[in-house]
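A favour, since you know our structure tokens better than I do. It will help me judge whether the discrete encoding reads sensibly. The space below this message is yours for that.
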Amino acid sequence: MTAPARYARWDGVGIPFRLVDAPLPEPGPGEVLVAVDLATVCGSDLHTTRGRRPSPVPGVLGHEQVGHVVATAPGPRHVDGTPVRAGDRIVWSVAASCGRCLRCRRGIPQKCTDLHKYGHAPLDEARPFTGGFATHCLLAPGTATVVVPDPVPDAVAAPASCATATVAAVLEAAGSPGPGERVLVTGAGMLGVTAAAMAARAGAEVVVADPHPDRRERALRFGAAAAVDADAVAAGDRFDVACELSGAPAAVRTCLDALDVGGVAVLAGSVSPGPQVGLDPERLVRGLHTVVGVHNYAPRHLAAAVAFLAAEHDRAPFAGLAAGPWALADLDAAVAAAGRPGAAPRQAVRP
């Protein structure tokens, strides 16, 4: 394959993206070449471009995307066990794992000791297609892939690779709350409203806390029974599950304080350095509380994310969560738009 393709090269904070043409590689053993149909600007992409999240420089950013398989080496299979075939419309995991190390064998492949993360890899100019902000992406062996049904719009499918699958992992860690259980979600961004929709659909009563009125209103459209100001969670209000998806230290404290007896707090928003949050060990012990951290996800969570979106995307306004689409040449503008107050949770980029 010698047809030229293009990627957006990131050279560091404050430097505009630069489009670079490169020949398409032939997939090697276990690899899959995908044409990117649409990618979305995730919060971690925004943090990287602002210098709040370390990332190799230069590099190709982007890890939320949907695309079609162009070519595949023999052997790769989707999460459901079916062979990967040219023409398959897929999303893929945020990382590739070896499947052999102790962490992979323990069921946490997202923390593989030989992890390859899309959108966070050093640029190899000989094989540069390692991120979503490009016309193509070369999937490494050990990447989880899931076929996306045709009715699911690109802008709905792309975030499955990060946001939606992460929420599936969060709710699994929380014990898959359902009927009769009360769930607190702090943060009404992309993860927060997705968590509200998933938990509400499972039958739980969901309360979302966020300081911004427009985000609270959006949470109600995604199934929250109530949406309150971040500091308005009543002191005596108790929840069976508390999901912290904002990363704000005060929200972590709110989740810990709001647990009922036997409650589970899942912390997934704290992905950047910040101040420590105190923990009352007596309350944790006497309350039989569980506190668990979730970062990224396992392949089954990506499959669960796609299944949920396929079933529910037209029952809640998921398509409205992404603005755009922008052309790849306008990636700087897309990233700037993602950082504006009141912006849609995602900006879509169509290579």
About this structure: The chain is about 25% helix and 25% strand. The longest strand covers residues 32-40.
